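Figure S7 source data.
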Amino acid sequence: MIVLGIETSCDETGIAIINDKYEILANVLYSQIDLHSVYGGVVPEIASRSHIEKIDILFNEALKQANLKLEDIDVIAATSGPGLIGGLLIGTTFAKSICYATGKPYMAVNHLQGHALMSRLTHNTNYPFLLVLTSGGHCQILEVKGTNDFTILGTTIDDAAGEAFDKVAKLLGYEYPGGGKIDALAKQGDSKRFKLPLPLINEDNCNFSFSGMKSAVRNIVAKGEIKTEQDKYDLCASFQSALCKCFEKKVQRALKETGLKTLVVSGGVARNSELRQTLTDVANKLGVDTHIPDPKLCTDNGVMIAVAGLENAKLNQFSSLNTTPRPRWPLEELKS
Ligand code: KG4
Ligand code: ZN
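Tokens for the predicted zinc ion complex:
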């Protein structure tokens, strides 16, 4: 079986083709970051226009890269939510049009499920596993018992971790999205220089809160404490270290509570080098395997949508062409 995956939920147009041996036959991606960075965040209208401009070009490029024709594709999967409605409409309409014209089956994929199941391709992960899903818009710890069986154990009560990274980067004058920049600069900084709050860390649950941490950074900047480049590096290192400490504690709790033996970390923030190391160490101490996809496959891409499409196709669960995109679509609703 050959699956084509289309991702258009935010600021990346991604198209990929995989086969049922989980081999990537094509993976093409156009990142809109340069279009949005001058505005300090994603502008939905600009995102939609860019998806329209690029989608058919990338589609043809993907077929060429895989050395395949449209006739060779068995399933067309597209992100149907959560995300920005303009982008979702473009990707799903493109996918449905192909299905309507060719009679091929359509798969409306949940974007978060794509992140969640990415490691089925990279690490051959088996169910059940503990999932840390951390991106620009989401930050959750979940127990995953099957392709569509997700139970939330903890979530952020305010900002997502990626959002906090991006806001802190903005406070320090770096372009959107600033997570990667903080990761790089933190390597040259002293993480003990600034003491930041660790919200909810001692609370008896698996929830996160990052807005207080971000406000503390804002206060340090407002007080004029950041004068040199080294001051910036130290603040990046202190912030990243504080955030990783929260993840360390909550993931340790979730692993102990559930007794799960595999830890998967996914979503854009799973690219973060310190977080990858911290969570690998936590898991190692408990004798748990860690499956973290290659950094390039952690941020949004078409492969993850093709993987979720393949997993559902294996269960013979396809979508009607009447399925409408959903800007909000919690993972737990996949059960029903
Ligand atoms: O999963 P993703 O591509 O898009 C969403 O679904 O949100 O995640 C994007 C987020 C951004 O907030 C970005 O700053 C963050 O991932 N990110 C990072 C790193 N690389 C990307 N955060 C921390 N460290 C990184 N190396
Ligand atoms: Zn994402």
